[in-house]
Amino acid sequence: MDSLKNAVGLGGENKEQSSEQSSSGGGFMDKINSMAGGGKESEAKEDYLDKGIDVIQEKVLGQGPQNNESAIEQAKDEQMSDFIRSKYKSATGSDVPIADK
After folding, report:
1. Among 39, 62, 80, 100, which residue's Cβ finds the most Cβ atoms within 10 Å?
2. What is the mean pLDDT of residues 14-36?
3. For 4-18, what is the mean pLDDT?
4. Beta carbons of 60 and 34 less than 8 angstroms apart
5. Residues sharing a CB contact under 8 Å with residue 67, sequence separation 6 or more, in sequence order
6. 77 has a pLDDT exceeding 50
7. What is the distance between the alpha carbons of residues 4 and 19, in angstroms, rounded to a whole number?
8. How many C-beta atoms surround the C-beta of residue 48 within 10 A?
9. Is the distance from CB of 96 to CB of 41 less than 8 angstroms?
């Protein structure tokens, strides 16, 4: 039975290999994502407000690791930080002390 599962791709070893491949990165789509402004390189360029949003998403909301987000996810984070900045400025009259990158 195990040999049949392995042949079909349902064996335990194949599951581990496929999860390693999907989480290892690389490939064409990762290059497209990086060119669009996503990926680990772009995560390093975030300001502290964006990183704070990532921490809340990861720890409080349980959305998983935020260290390799797609360009779309990073754009959403930037919109959230811009919203926070605008509401802070309208409430206090001064800019957020964290510089926007």
Report:
1. 39
2. 54
3. 47
4. no
5. 40, 43, 54
6. yes
7. 20
8. 13
9. no
